[in-house]
């Protein structure tokens, strides 16, 4: 069977085991595996999983095996290790989707086994092609060596025959000259001096002397011949088995398929579409926009370091003051994971009081006031005793019970918490419109990284205010804390410090690899939501 994505059971080696391992590792290292937050509706995660399933089905039907394997593994992992962890997974209203998901996962796993079988066949065929190519290259190399050896022997034989023919001709001429000289001596009268028998010296004699010396066909003496290394063929090297199939082209052809190409062409939810090509001559207004340089995005690790230093500076100046509370959520039974209700109730109490919410009122909300509300809301939506509750369920209930008022709702903001434009929208709503609402008390619930804090504003003038962040988790000497920010600049510094401090190493790695995309907001560690209320008067009904 194919490796089950949920339990990591070791599988027996198969022809495609290495190929599938490389695909899994590439997917894990891509940082694209999403996380599930309890503060986002479960329906959105089911919808996201449906998109992954559609991508898997399309790749499976078209026999795009690598993509089918990746999308099938993603779907199975996301359903079994992501959606299952959502606190609303066992809620009564999601029973049908839960059953449907279980059936779909089993079907996908069965098809993944089929994908693995097809991959096995492909890898066996690939190995056979590689072996055949190796044998072809080896035979081709041997053939070239044989032809070269035959050429060398043919050239050697030709030269030897030519040299032999030239030597024979010289020997015959020497014999003729020797016989002629002997005949001349015999024809001379007896008793003549030897000097008279010799012909006079001249060029003909020199020529005869030269004929008596052995020579090469080209007329050079053996001692005068010099050989040019370029005239001779290179020495033959013995064939090496290591050379066969070692070309770059072949090695590239048998390397495992790159998963990066899949990632570049698809989002987590499936293959993407190619973007529109830019016209050769863009309109003037577009060219003007493109010419404006965007500010350089600060790398996340550098941003964290700068934020921590700035926060220490503001603390020394007294612009940021942190004071512990005397309790925390979870200290009293029934308040665990109650931050959604606690933060909303703190905002409600702040708007009701004349001078703003006190520490005693905050502790009362955490230890007593939130407990029955949590029990009721969880029961209404079918959640367990310590389940997280999404913001909409809490706000709807508090508005129904007149603990929050719809006419006091200012607005909502969200997006990338480290983007000043996105977080600035929340700050703008909280600060209010100058001359109209900036002098009013206000409060916000900030949802970030599976936790909710409240930020309450108390105006000190028509333009200035104090902002307190109330956190019910035991992060301040084992207790909840209240952080006072004197002015908007201090609030911005503390907000950046609070958020960047909550990023884990995995979150930071994800941020370094991925730019912000609205379509992936539910899975991005930078995503936040904020809901803002202000002490607005109830509109008169005419």
Quick overview:
With 542 residues, this protein is α+β, with helices and mostly antiparallel strands.
Mind explaining what this structure looks like?
This protein has 542 residues and is α+β, with helices and mostly antiparallel strands. It has 2 domains: 1-221 and 243-273, Phosphotransferase system, lactose/cellobiose-type IIA subunit (Methane Monooxygenase Hydroxylase, Chain G, domain 1, Up-down Bundle), CATH 1.20.58.80; 300-534, Cathepsin B, Chain A. 51% of the residues lie in helices and 11% in strands. The chain is built from 16 helices and 9 strands. The chain has helices at residues 17-29, 42-61, 65-82, 95-187, 194-197, 203-211, 248-254, 260-265, 284-291, 300-316, 339-352, 359-381, 391-400, 420-431, 488-501, 505-513; strands spanning 266-267, 270-271, 320-324, 409-416, 442-448, 451-459, 465-476, 479-486, 527-534. The strands form 2 sheets. It has a 7-stranded antiparallel sheet with strand order 3-8-7-6-5-9-4, sandwiched between helices. It has a two-stranded antiparallel ribbon with strand order 1-2. Strand 6 (451-459) and strand 7 (465-476) form a beta hairpin. Helix 10 (300-316) packs across helix 15 (488-501). The longest helix has 93 residues, at 95-187. Mean pLDDT is 80; it is low at 1-9, 192-200 and 202-291.
């Amino acid at each position: 069977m194919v490796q089950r994505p949920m339990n990591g059971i070791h599988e027996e080696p198969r022809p495609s085991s290495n190929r599938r391992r490389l695909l899994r590792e590439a997917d894990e290292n891509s940082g694209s595996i999403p996380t599930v937050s309890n503060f986002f509706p479960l329906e959105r995660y089911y919808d996201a999983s449906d998109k992954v399933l559609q991508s898997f089905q399309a790749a499976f039907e078209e026999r795009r095996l690598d993509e089918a394997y990746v999308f099938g593994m993603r779907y199975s992992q996301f359903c079994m290790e992501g959606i299952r962890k959502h606190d609303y997974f066992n809620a009564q209203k999601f029973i049908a989707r839960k059953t449907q998901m279980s059936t779909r996962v089993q079907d996908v796993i069965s098809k993944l086994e089929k994908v693995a079988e097809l991959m096995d066949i492909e890898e066996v065929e690939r190995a056979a092609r590689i072996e055949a190519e190796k044998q072809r290259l080896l035979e081709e190399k041997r053939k070239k060596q044989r032809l070269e050896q035959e050429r060398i022997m043919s050239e050697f034989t030709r030269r030897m025959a030519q040299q032999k023919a030239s030597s024979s001709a010289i020997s015959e001429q020497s014999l003729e000259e020797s016989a002629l000289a002997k005949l001349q001596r015999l024809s001379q009268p007896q008793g003549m001096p030897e000097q008279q028998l010799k012909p006079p010296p001249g060029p003909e004699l020199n020529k005869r002397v030269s004929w008596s010396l052995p020579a090469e066909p080209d007329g050079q003496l053996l001692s005068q011949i010099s050989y040019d290394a370029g005239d001779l063929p290179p020495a033959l090297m013995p064939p090496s088995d290591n050379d066969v199939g070692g070309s770059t082209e072949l090695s590239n052809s048998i390397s495992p398929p790159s998963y990066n190409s899949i990632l570049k062409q698809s989002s987590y939810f499936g293959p993407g579409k190619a973007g529109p090509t830019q016209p050769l001559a863009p309109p003037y207004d577009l060219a003007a926009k493109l010419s404006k340089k965007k500010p350089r995005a600060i790398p996340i690790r550098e941003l964290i370091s700068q934020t921590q230093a700035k926060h220490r500076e503001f603390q020394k100046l007294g612009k940021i003051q942190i004071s512990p509370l005397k309790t925390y959520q979870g200290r009293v039974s029934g308040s665990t994971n109650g931050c959604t209700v606690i933060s909303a109730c703190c905002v409600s109490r702040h708007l009701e009081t004349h001078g703003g919410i006190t520490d005693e009122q905050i502790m009362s909300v955490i230890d007593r006031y939130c407990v029955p509300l949590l029990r009721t809301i969880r029961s209404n939506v079918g959640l367990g005793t310590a389940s997280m509750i999404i913001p909409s369920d809490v706000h709807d209930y508090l508005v129904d019970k007149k603990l929050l008022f719809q006419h006091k709702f200012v607005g909502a903001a969200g997006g990338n918490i480290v983007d000043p434009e996105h977080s600035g929208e929340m700050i703008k709503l909280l600060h209010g419109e100058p001359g109209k609402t900036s002098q009013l008390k206000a409060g916000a619930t900030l949802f970030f990284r599976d936790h909710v804090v409240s930020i309450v504003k108390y105006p000190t003038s028509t333009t200035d205010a104090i902002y307190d962040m109330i956190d019910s988790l035991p992060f301040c000497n084992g207790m909840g804390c209240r952080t006072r920010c004197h002015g908007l600049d201090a609030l911005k510094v503390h907000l950046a410090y609070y958020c960047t401090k909550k990023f884990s190493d995995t979150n930071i790695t994800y941020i370094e690899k991925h730019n912000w995309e609205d379509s992936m907001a539910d899975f991005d560690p930078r995503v936040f939501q904020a809901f803002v209320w202000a002490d607005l008067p109830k509109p008169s009904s005419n």
